[in-house]
């Protein structure tokens, strides 16, 4: 039933888009309807150059996401467990966190050049916060009685961390993963679009679409980026159901 | 086996109890009953070593307990939903404290199976806490304590969060398992009837700052019955005795206390 409703929503959206695109209100070249975009997509997926760009973006994303998880989880655990360290770093974090990653492009260009490592660095910069904050927050929220129970059975600090705190934090961390994965993708495509340079779908859209007025390619790029976002999100949601069968955290 | 002498504690300027002394002998079930705010839970937390009281001494097997939880003690809390770990199954929760003990896997599994059977949950081992009713969850918590084979089991209002029917069932369950497995239990409750129904002895605390108002032996047969025992003359006279000690005279105050406890 839910699937039917979801599909119905998409169909209605496409119909409105198609109707609007064909209405003549805007030139078809500027606002291509989905039938035109679908044709463009089909062409792109048979073009090796486009596929290379797609793979490049995905790889960049995967590396950036992996590094974000690898950095943010341990750092979050340390910051969340040691009150002194948490307090000492709080204001620095609060200062760094709201700076948009895209605003750091000039700095990153100087430091890393215009290659994948620049994209990865900025994506990591943007993506570590949601995971880190969720882990820190969740560690602070572990129910006192969970800890009392462990203590009353004589579990020490290390065992309590491993067997009580970590499983309790896990659902929050995974929620952080979902947010971070989307943010990383967003930042990578945005850098490609703004800056071009290294290979990726954003760069492809800029070269063949934006710069030469091919709006169908711009739209196709948006559709692909959106689809990637949905796929990544549902992939992590699946992971969440596998790893957190008790449905904790979010309640 | 448990000797508490001159225990006192205050939160800031607020003295919760002073000069509490009591003993629990091997194999006994002792109930502590007191009005709300008299520091029953604080007392139990002190005895369990989860917190250190301001003054007094607690000896378990002659060894002092001060802010360190003794290894042969198990606590059953009132709020089972925050005491069982939702990521573990019922069996996993029962097994949780056993992993620390030097047992083989087979011994551990056997203890888990046995403890779940004692509380009537032999088939529910694979369920997770959130798939179980409150009564079932508290049974798991009791099974967890039993499987740990503690010398002393501390219970903090263990049946206060379940409905009346389940409460009777769990009370009888406790009486049965302690009879069959020789447990020593110290149980805290605000419910006068419960304290008399369950206890071999009832320790009555006064209003805060609380002291021991009475330490009474419950002269009831070991085999108790929810209907008959509660209707017996001995039970009725004991419960009114405890009620008198708890509330003193003055009905308005009694109502106030009852209301505060709801």
Helix-strand layout with pairing:
The complex is a heterodimer of chains A (251) and B (262).
Chain A: H1 2-22, H2 34-45, H3 48-81, H4 83-96, H5 105-112, H6 116-140, H7 144-152, H8 157-195, H9 201-208, H10 215-243
Helix pairs in contact in A: 2-10, 3-4, 3-6, 3-8, 3-9, 5-6, 6-8, 8-9, 8-10, 9-10
Chain B: E1 2-11, E2 14-24, E3 29-33, H1 40-48, E4 55-60, E5 63-64, E6 73-76, H2 90-95, H3 105-118, H4 134-147, E7 152-156, H5 164-181, E8 185-189, H6 192-198, E9 201-205, E10 212-217, H7 228-231, H8 233-247, H9 251-261
Parallel strand pairs in B: 3-8, 3-9, 6-7, 7-8
Antiparallel strand pairs in B: 1-2, 1-4, 4-5, 9-10
Helix pairs in contact in B: 3-4, 4-5, 6-8
Protein name (chain B): NitT/TauT family transport system ATP-binding protein
Keywords (chain B): ATP-binding, Nucleotide-binding, Transport
GO molecular function (chain B): ATP binding; ATP hydrolysis activity
Question: How does this structure look, described?
Answer:
Chain B: It comes from Labedaea rhizosphaerae. Chain B: GO terms for molecular function: ATP binding; ATP hydrolysis activity. Chain B: It holds the Pfam family ABC_tran. The complex is a heterodimer of chains A (about 250) and B (about 260). Chain A has a single domain (about 40-240), classed as MetI-like fold. Helices cover about 80% and strands about 0% of the residues of chain A. Chain A has helices at about 1-20, 35-45, 50-80, 85-95, 105-110, 115-140, 145-150, 155-195, 200-210, 215-245. In chain A, helix 3 runs parallel beside helix 6 (about 115-140). The longest helix of chain A has about 40 residues, at about 155-195. The mean pLDDT of chain A is about 90. Chain B is α/β, with parallel strands linked by helices and about 260 residues long. Chain B has a domain at about 1-70 and about 185-250: Rossmann fold (3-Layer(aba) Sandwich), CATH 3.40.50. Chain B has helices at about 40-50, 90-95, 105-120, 135-145, 165-180, 190-200, 230, 235-245, 250-260; strands spanning about 1-10, 15-25, 30-35, 55-60, 65, 75, 150-155, 185-190, 200-205, 210-215. In chain B, the strands form two sheets. Chain B has a six-stranded mixed beta sheet with strand order 6-7-8-3-9-10, sandwiched between helices. A four-stranded antiparallel beta sheet of chain B has the order 2-1-4-5, with helices on one face. The longest helix of chain B is centred in the middle third of the chain and has 18 residues, at about 165-180. Chain B is globular, with a radius of gyration of 18 Å. The two termini of chain B are about 35 Å apart. Classes of the chains: A mainly alpha (about 250), B alpha/beta (about 260). At the A-B interface, helix 7 and helix 8 of A face strand 6 of B.
């Amino acid at each position: 039933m839910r699937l039917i409703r979801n599909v119905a929503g998409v169909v209605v959206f496409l119909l409105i888009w198609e109707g609007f695109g064909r209405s003549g209100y805007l030139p078809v070249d500027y606002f291509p309807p989905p039938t035109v975009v679908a044709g463009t997509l089909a062409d792109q997926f048979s073009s090796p150059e486009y596929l290379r760009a797609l793979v490049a973006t995905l790889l960049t994303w995967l590396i950036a996401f992996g590094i974000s998880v690898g950095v943010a989880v341990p750092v979050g655990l340390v910051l969340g467990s040691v009150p002194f360290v948490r307090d000492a770093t709080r204001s620095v974090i609060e200062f760094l966190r709201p700076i948009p990653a895209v605003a750091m492009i000039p700095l990153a260009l100087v430091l890393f050049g215009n290659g994948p490592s620049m994209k990865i660095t900025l994506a990591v910069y943007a993506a570590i916060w949601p995971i880190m904050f969720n882990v820190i927050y969740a560690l602070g929220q572990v129910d006192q009685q969970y800890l009392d129970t462990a203590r009353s059975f004589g579990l020490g600090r290390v065992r309590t961390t491993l067997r009580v705190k970590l499983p309790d934090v896990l659902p929050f961390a995974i929620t952080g993963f979902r947010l971070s994965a989307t943010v990383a993708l967003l930042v990578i495509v945005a850098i490609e679009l703004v800056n071009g340079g290294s290979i990726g779908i954003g760069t492809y859209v800029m070269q063949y679409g934006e710069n030469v007025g091919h709006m169908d390619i711009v739209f196709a790029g948006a559709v692909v980026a959106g689809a990637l976002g949905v796929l990544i999100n549902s992939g992590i949601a699946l992971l969440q159901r596998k790893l957190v069968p008790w449905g904790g955290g979010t309640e | 086996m448990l000797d508490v002498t001159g225990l006192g504690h205050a939160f800031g300027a607020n003295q919760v109890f002073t000069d509490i002394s009591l003993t629990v002998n091997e194999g006994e079930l002792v109930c502590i009953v007191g009005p709300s705010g008299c520091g029953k839970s604080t007392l139990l937390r002190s005895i369990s070593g989860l917190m250190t009281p301001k003054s007094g001494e607690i000896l378990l097997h002659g060894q002092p307990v001060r802010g360190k939880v003794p290894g042969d003690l198990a606590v059953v809390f009132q709020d089972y939903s925050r005491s069982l770990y939702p990521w573990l199954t019922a069996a996993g929760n029962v097994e949780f404290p056993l992993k620390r003990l030097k047992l083989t896997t087979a011994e551990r599994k056997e203890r888990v199976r046995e403890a779940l059977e004692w509380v009537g949950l032999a088939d529910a081992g694979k369920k997770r806490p959130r798939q179980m009713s409150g009564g079932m969850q508290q049974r798991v918590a009791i099974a967890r304590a039993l499987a740990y084979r503690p010398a002393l089991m501390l219970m903090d209002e263990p049946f206060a969060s379940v409905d009346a029917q389940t409460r009777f069932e769990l009370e009888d369950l406790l009486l049965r398992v302690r009879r069959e497995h020789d447990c020593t239990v110290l149980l805290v409750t605000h419910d006068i009837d419960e304290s008399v129904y369950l206890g071999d002895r009832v320790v009555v605390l006064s209003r805060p700052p609380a002291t021991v108002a009475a330490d009474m032996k419950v002269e009831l047969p070991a085999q108790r019955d929810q209907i008959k025992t509660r209707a017996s003359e001995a039970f009725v006279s004991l419960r009114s005795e405890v009620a008198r000690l708890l509330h003193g005279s003055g009905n308005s105050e009694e109502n106030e206390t009852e209301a505060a406890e709801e």
